[in-house]
Recover the amino acids of this structure.
């Protein structure tokens, strides 16, 4: 297992797209920080900082691309055969890829967070992190929102991982991942209208994608008809379910 993880990390580190994506995220954060500095009437400081200067959204897009390709590329280039010939189990291959994806997600989040604090210190030195915000301090709300974003991202990535086991090319997997992301985002918003009529719909996975919004605005529980703790648990449960289904799909896929 350790060897497989090292191999996956080696491929990730030596992939040009990894560094281009990281550089794009950092440069975009800097760009939005500068725009916010000189045009506060267009984008408020609070919203920029809360979103890691748009870094939070970019992490989702980067991770969707990575998740969509990490499995499909093995089948596209036939490297899955080499791994199986070396007597690795499919479960070991699958788990090693998940571990590497989680490590990449963690690194991106750390970089985005560090950039947020650095840019805020440089461009908004007077910003008060301990200022009251929704019955708590801004920094507490910031990390709570980040935790909600993690839950949403993991749930989305588990679904993208499942999609990736169905496609044989990187391009198809990436396109399906992004299309699926936008469809899911739109559907989760429209779902609010339906829950009021058919309350049982609240238990579907799309509702759980609203967990970050409910963490930021607890009053959303009146719309989702679920407590925040239930939303958190639901997001984690559906993440596990989609990942397990993706594993069985990966096991059954022919090489």
């Amino acid at each position: 297992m350790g060897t497989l993880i090292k191999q996956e990390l080696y491929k990730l580190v030596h992939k040009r797209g990894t560094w281009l994506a990281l550089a794009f995220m950092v440069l975009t954060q800097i760009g939005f920080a500068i725009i916010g500095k000189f045009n506060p009437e267009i984008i408020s400081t609070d919203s920029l900082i809360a979103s890691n200067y748009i870094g939070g959204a970019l992490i989702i897009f980067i991770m969707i691309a990575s998740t969509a390709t990490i499995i499909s590329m093995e089948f596209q280039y036939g490297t899955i055969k080499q791994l199986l010939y070396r007597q690795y189990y499919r479960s070991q291959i699958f788990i090693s890829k998940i571990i590497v994806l989680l490590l990449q997600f963690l690194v991106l989040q750390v970089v985005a967070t560090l950039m947020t604090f650095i840019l805020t210190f440089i461009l908004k030195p007077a910003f008060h992190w301990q200022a009251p915000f929704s019955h708590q301090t801004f920094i507490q709300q910031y990390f709570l929102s980040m935790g909600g974003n993690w839950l949403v991202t993991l749930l989305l990535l588990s679904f993208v991982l499942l999609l990736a086991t169905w496609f044989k090319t990187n391009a198809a997997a990436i396109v399906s991942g992004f299309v699926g992301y936008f469809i899911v985002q739109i559907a989760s918003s429209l779902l609010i209208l339906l829950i009021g009529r058919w309350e049982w719909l609240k238990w579907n996975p799309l509702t759980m994608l609203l967990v970050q919004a409910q963490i930021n605005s607890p009053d959303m529980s009146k719309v989702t008809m679920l407590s925040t703790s239930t939303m958190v648990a639901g997001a984690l449960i559906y993440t596990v379910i989609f990942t397990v289904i993706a594993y069985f799909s990966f096991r059954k896929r022919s090489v």
Q: What stands out?
A: The chain is about 75% helix and 0% strand. The chain has a mean pLDDT of 84.
